[in-house]
Structure formats: structure tokens, C-alpha cells
Amino acid sequence: MRVIRPSTLLLLVFAHTLAGQQWPQFRGPTGQGLADAHDVPLHWSDDENVRWKVPVEGRGWSSPVVGGGKVWVTSSVDAPDSTPNRRGISLRAIAFDAATGKRVVDTEVFRVTRPRELNPKNSFASPTPILDGDRVYVHYGADGTAALTSSGEVVWRAQLSYASQHGGGGSPALYRDLLIINCDGNASEAFVVALDIRTGKERWRRDRRRPADQAYTTPLVINTAGRDQLISVGAYRATSYDPLTGREIWRVGYDDGFSNVPRPVFGNGLVFIATGFQQPRLIAVRPDGSGDVTSTHVAWTLTRGAPYTPSPVLVDNDLYVVSDSGILTQVDSRTGGVRYQQRLGAGSYSASPVFAEGRLYFLSEEGVTTVIAPGPAFTRLAVNRVDGATLASMAVVDGAIFLRSDRFLYRIGE
User: I want to staple 148 with a disulfide (CB 3.0 to 4.6 A). Which of 100, 136, 222, 413 is the partner?
Assistant: First the structure.
């Protein structure tokens, strides 16, 4: 008769619990940074409340996703055939056991050769994977898109031809049997495409209206008035498409916005869109129009404190926006009225915030997470630090935060 020690039994129960938890895409189940999770840790450091900490080979800023008892990331690893001017790169999909941190999948998905130059804040593995049952969808920008099984076998590969100046950034979105990707390379190569999740073949493609330019955003599917819409943010305009066909429903313009990064957010009858560089703004758009709604459906505009990189998070009627320089703004989502602004400090910000168990988590590029309480006044609850750079957004499931640094993947939990 096999004897199960109490510690082993606890690990088995813990593993079973995590196997049922899901954080399947960039910004979680809803794609908007909202975690339906309990027992989420409030305090940690590099050696406090760390269940495990494992090295991740190579470089990548894809955010961790969780499902089926595994934590997935992508990474780019320098290949042995690199030269001083050209680097051979192995683009990999890696999974760790969520309970133990043991690496259980490490698959080379693509092998490419690229110049050594890349935007210093980017990597060759920045888009976040998507989990759906036994499938894992990975995207490396113009270097390739693929579907894998949960055990790491490649099901299909696809190549989308566009040239992105600063590398890949935006993650795909999943809608029914479609994988939808923003491909905003430049003025001549900017489009939105839907791939069949079974084969990787194109089902529809829509070119961006001119002018077009660089953008690095992740689309969001919303449902309003009983109708699904795909909100796709690009340079100089954001567009709502029918996600099944790619037919344009409405569009909103902004003259000087490009290199957009934040994922849009939807709630309280409004879509919240960051317009990008040059004149950064956050605009709230009513999604019930058709055609060009720039002059008719913009409910309000935030000009001071708008983000370049982190996505907003909406909690009830309050919209929280952190700028890249660390200025937190709480906005009444219905009117655009600013309730307060507060400098978080702790460096610069690229990761998108998370709302979990009644708290807001803001992760800086310097490994510092500031936790605050929602409400009409700024209330700081905790400040936590890990070593290394942290540009990826965290994943949150019951009892666990999965946090990626430039060298390690952490499972944080009490």
C-alpha cells in the first residue's frame, strides 16, 4: 500500500487546484486585467512568499499565461550560428508545471536570422500566447505564428508578411474558431487578419485605411447591444470590425497617434482607447455608431497622464491609467473627470495593471509592484520588489501571481 505523506498530499491538492485555473491570454480571461481569484498575495520580495523561482532561457517579454496546470511563455534564444552582424535566433514556446516550476515543454517553433538591432524595450518574443483547451497559439510578429498541442507538438505554422520597425508587440485575440492579429508594419503593410485556428489559413484580411503606420496593439472583442465587435487600435485611427467577417462597423480618428501599444478596455457603454505617441490621449468612444464617428461618438478625452504603453484597468465606474513615467490617474469612466493623480514612483512602467481580490497591482520596469486600494482617494497597501527588469504583465489565479523578469519566472503565493 502506498503511503502519501502530508506534504505530498498538499502538493497534489495544490496541483489539482491550479490545473483548474485559467489566465489564458494577455490580460487574463476577459483581456482587461480583471482576475476572478482568491487568496492573492499582498506582500512578497525576492525571497519572501516565493513558491518557486525558475530561470527562463533567452530573452522575451511575453506575459505568462496559465491553463491546464502549466504556465506558458515564449522566448528568443541566440542560436550557435550567430555572427557579429547577424544573429541566428531560436523562437521557443516554454511551459512550466504551475505547482512545482519544473520545465515540462521547450519547443523550437521557428528558427530565424535577424540583424542584432532591435528597440531596447522590445524582444523577438514579446507577444503573449493564447491557451484554448489542448491548443497553444504563439505569435512572434512577422517571424511567424503557430499552433501547438499542450504537450508542445507543432500543429501548424503560418507566416504573415509585414515589416515592423521595432519588432513584434501586439498579441493575438481568439474569437470562436479565429485567431485575429493586428499586423501594423508601416504605411504599405498594415492590416488585420483572421486565421483559422485548425489550419492557420487566412479566413479574412482587411487592409488599414491610409495613412497607416507602426502600431503594436492587441485587439479586443466586446459585446454590446447583443452584437460582437472587434476593437482594433492602429495608427491614426481605431476601427470596430465584425469579428466573423472583418466588415468595418465604425472608426474613430486621431491625427497624431501612432506606435500605439495599450490594449483597449470596454465598460459602462464606452470603449477606452490610447492614441499613441506625439500627442498621447485616452479617448472614450460610444460603440453604437457606424462609419466615421470621430465627431459624433467621442464622449470625452484625457490629455494629461495618458499612457504610451500600459493598458488601463476599469473597476466599477473608475478607470485607472498609469503613464510610462509612473503617474497614476483615476478617472470617472462615465464623464472623464479626473478624481486624483498620484506619482507611484519606482521607475518607469510598461506592464499593464491587474485588479485582483479588491486590489490594484501596478508593476514597474524595475521589479517593483505597488498595490493600492480602489476608491476616491489614493491608498497605498504594499510595495513589493523582485530583482531584475519586469516589462511583462503578471498573471493571477487563485493563490498565485506569476511574474516574469528578464531572467526568471516567479510563482508568488503565501
Answer: 136
The dihedral sign for the CA sequence 55, 35, 48, 327: positive
CB 260 within 8 A of CB 233: yes
**Alpha helices, DSSP H, located in 89-211:** none
C-alpha–C-alpha distance, residues 310 and 321, integer Å:
8
Select from 357, 352, 360, 354 the least CA-distant residue to 390: 352
Q: Which residues contact 325 (CB under 8 A, 6 or more apart)?
A: 348, 349
The x, y and z cell numbers of residue 139, run together, are 505569435
| Whole-angstrom distance, CA of residue 91 vs CA of residue 75 | 6
Residue 353 CA to residue 307 CA, distance in Å, equals: 12
Task: Tell me which DSSP letter residue 394 carries.
Answer: P
The CA distance from 375 to 122, in Å, is 34
**pLDDT tens digit string along 68-86?**
999 999 999 988 876 766 7
Q: Which residue, 12, 34, 39, is CA-closest to 23?
A: 34
User: Residue holding cell 517571424?
Assistant: 143
| Longest Cα separation, the chain | 75
- Domain positions in the chain are 6-412
Q: Check residue 247 and report its DSSP letter.
A: -
Instruction: Give the pLDDT score at 63.
Output: 98
- Stretches where the chain sits below pLDDT 50 are 1-20
CA distances from 409 to 61, 404, 413 (A): 11, 5, 13
What is the pLDDT, as a whole number, of residue 11?
Answer: 37
Place of cell 487568496: 39
Angstrom distance (rounded) from CA 214 to CA 135: 30
Please identify, in words, the CATH class of the domain defined by 6-412. Answer: mainly beta
Alpha helices (runs of H) in 351-391, residue ranges in sequence order? none
Q: Are residues 203 and 196 in contact, defined by beta-carbon separation less than 8 angstroms?
A: yes
Q: E-assigned strands of 161-281?
A: 173-175, 178-186, 189-196, 202-207, 220-224, 227-234, 237-241, 248-253, 265-267, 270-274
H helix runs in 20-93, sequence order: none
